[in-house]
Design goal:
- The protein is an alpha/beta fold.
- The chain folds into two domains: 207 residues, Quinone Oxidoreductase, Chain A, domain 1, CATH 3.90.180.10; 137 residues, NAD(P)-binding Rossmann-like Domain (Rossmann fold).
- 29% of the residues lie in helices and 27% in strands.
- The protein starts with a strand and ends with a strand.
Length: 374
């Protein structure tokens, strides 16, 4: 079938994207679903820094690439072998499908699924297929999703069925922002009632982590960002203390406010400097968690002796260290209880043709979460 999709043909094109237009809205051919695959009519797709890092070239991917990884939609058609979904079902895309049989999946760590990571690097679905073409040439998939498009063909294992009682434009955020931010809090940091929590980087994922920390019962939440308007938003959402990372005494002031450092500090900046700051904000015996995606060559140095004499822990969290089929329904339940007001993170809606403008806003720090609404 013919569809319109956002295709990136070259990385590293300079801003302003609204003028240089690195993301082209193109008519492409989308194959029907094969064995174990599903055709989804996309309803909403969120703009994330993970997409931006591909556009600006800091995270290389095979070109040309059909962009988009955080989305929701409605099942249009199921391929052979798919028996638990049918036309009309509402689904959320997950950017790491689980094969169910590799060692990480067998250990209950589907975010580390080895075939999924290999498929993402190759630009295919989990099945190994390319389903998008233009003029006879193959277009690569972004992490098996490619949701900045009217329709997407995806592996069944990239989809989580949800009840139709949540607006699809909000449901989209649960596939990345909520799953990554909330999961880092609950699954990786294991924040408990009364814990002190630091959050460095208050974008969509960081603010979802803030909401998750509140839901987990954190007693004090320290937010850090470079932009004052995001600090104000964090305070309105429940942060007890906020600090601008541009201030020379940011680390010392944040540590003082939290009584010598926080029990757990989460980094969502996608930079080594942000991770280093999160480490500074963590108390002796505490845990530093990073879920940002810095460029592949970025490195992080720390005093090695701290790991022993201060019993410090540094952990990575990918996809929120989540089991999506387990965690997304739990987070949706919190949303319905009013304990996870994710709608407060939605700062804009766009048409597909406005996507370059949306990425300008994201790159310039003018938005938290925007969605392309179809």
């Amino acid at each position: 079938m013919k569809i319109r999709a956002a295709v990136l043909e070259e990385m590293g094109v300079p801003q302003p994207y609204a003028k240089t237009r690195p993301v082209k809205i193109a008519e492409v051919d989308l194959d029907p679903p094969g064995e174990g695959e599903v055709l989804v009519r996309v309803a909403a797709a969120g703009l994330c820094h993970s997409d931006l890092s591909i556009i600006n070239g800091s995270r290389p991917r095979p070109m040309p690439l059909a962009l988009g990884h955080e989305a929701s939609g409605v099942v249009e058609e199921v391929g052979p072998g798919v028996r638990d979904l049918r036309r009309g079902d509402h689904v959320i895309f997950v950017f790491v499908p689980s094969c169910g049989s590799c060692m990480p999946c067998a250990e209950g760590r589907p975010a580390l699924c080895e075939p999924a990571i290999a498929a993402a690097g190759a630009g295919t679905l989990l099945t190994g297929a390319h389903r998008i073409h233009r003029d006879g040439a193959t277009i690569n998939h972004q992490v098996g999703v490619s949701s900045f498009a009217e329709y997407a063909t995806a592996s069944r294992r990239s989809l989580i069925k949800v009840d139709p009682d949540i607006p699809l434009e909000l449901a989209a955020l649960f596939g990345c922002a909520v799953l990554t931010g909330m999961g880092a809090v609950v699954n990786c940091a294991q924040v408990r009632a009364g814990s002190t929590v630091g959050i460095v980087g208050l974008g969509g994922v960081g603010l979802a982590a803030l909401l998750g920390s509140l839901a987990a019962g954190a007693g004090r939440i320290v937010g850090v960002d470079l932009l004052d308007w995001k600090l104000a938003l964090a305070r309105s959402l429940g942060a007890t203390d906020t600090f601008n990372a541009n201030d020379a005494d940011c680390a010392e002031a944040a540590r003082a406010a939290s009584g010598g450092g926080v029990d757990c500090c989460l980094d969502f900046t996608g930079s080594a400097d942000g991770l280093a700051l999160a480490y500074k904000l963590t108390r002796r015996g505490g845990v530093t968690v990073t879920a940002g995606l810095p460029p592949p060559g970025a490195t992080f140095a720390l005093p090695a002796v701290h790991l022993v004499v201060e019993e410090r822990t540094v952990k990575g969290s990918y996809l929120g260290s989540s089991v999506p089929a387990r965690d997304i329904p739990r987070y949706l339940a919190l949303y319905h209880q009013g304990r996870l007001p994710i709608e407060k993170l939605l700062t804009g809606k766009l048409a597909l043709d406005e996507i370059n403008l949306g990425f300008d806003r994201l790159a310039n720090g003018e938005a938290v979460r925007q969605v392309v609404a179809f």
